[in-house]
């Protein structure tokens, strides 16, 4: 299976359980790994045969800078589902969301959530 990786996309959002997070917002980093058969793109050199990295960013941005979520898990799930809706060539996706300096007791560089989903997870 082929992979396209878009790493360290940065967004400012208002996600979290605490009122301060929803009011002040904070930075989030997102990595996505998109898996499928992209062999045709390698042979034809045509964007139509692959997944547009710019559109991956725009789909992710719409969620990360959109409606507030309490949990990183919910954000990651929304991104995964939206990617399947946007890209017919996508078979499997991993989404990692990193939250630097979380407002929880202790000293952390960051906390994060990673989900991996298959297209069949969304088919009825």
UniProtKB/TrEMBL annotation:
Annotated Gene Ontology MF terms? dihydroneopterin aldolase activity
**Keyword annotations from UniProtKB, A to Z:** Folate biosynthesis, Lyase
Entry's Gene Ontology BP terms: folic acid biosynthetic process; tetrahydrofolate biosynthetic process
Q: Which residue ranges does UniProt annotate as crossing the membrane?
A: none
Pathway linked to the protein = Cofactor biosynthesis; tetrahydrofolate biosynthesis; 2-amino-4-hydroxy-6-hydroxymethyl-7,8-dihydropteridine diphosphate from 7,8-dihydroneopterin triphosphate: step 3/4
Question: What InterPro entries does the record point to?
Answer: Dihydroneopterin_aldolase, FolB_dom, GTP-CH-I_C/QueF
Recorded GO CC terms:
cytoplasm
Residue stretches making up the Dihydroneopterin aldolase/epimerase domain: 4-117
Spell out the Pfam families in the cross-references: FolB (PF02152)
Q: Which reaction does it catalyse?
A: 7,8-dihydroneopterin = 6-hydroxymethyl-7,8-dihydropterin + glycolaldehyde
Enzyme Commission numbers on file: 4.1.2.25
Protein family per UniProt: Belongs to the DHNA family.
Checking NCBIfam families in the record gives: folB, folB_dom
Described by its record, this protein's role is as follows: Catalyzes the conversion of 7,8-dihydroneopterin to 6-hydroxymethyl-7,8-dihydropterin.
PANTHER family the record matches: DIHYDRONEOPTERIN ALDOLASE 1-RELATED
* Protein name in the entry: 7,8-dihydroneopterin aldolase
Gene giving rise to this polypeptide:
folB
């Amino acid at each position: 299976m082929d992979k396209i990786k878009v790493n360290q996309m940065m967004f400012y959002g208002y996600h979290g359980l605490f009122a301060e997070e929803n009011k002040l917002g904070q930075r989030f980093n997102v990595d996505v790994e998109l898996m499928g058969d992209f062999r045709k793109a390698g042979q034809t050199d045509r964007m139509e045969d692959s997944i547009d990295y710019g559109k991956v960013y725009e789909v992710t941005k719409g969620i990360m800078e959109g409606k507030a979520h309490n949990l990183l898990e919910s954000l990651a799930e929304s991104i995964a589902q939206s990617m399947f809706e946007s890209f017919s060539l996508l078979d499997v996706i991993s989404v990692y969301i990193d939250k630097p300096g979380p407002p929880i007791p202790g000293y952390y560089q960051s906390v994060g959530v990673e989900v991996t989903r298959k297209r069949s997870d969304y088919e009825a």
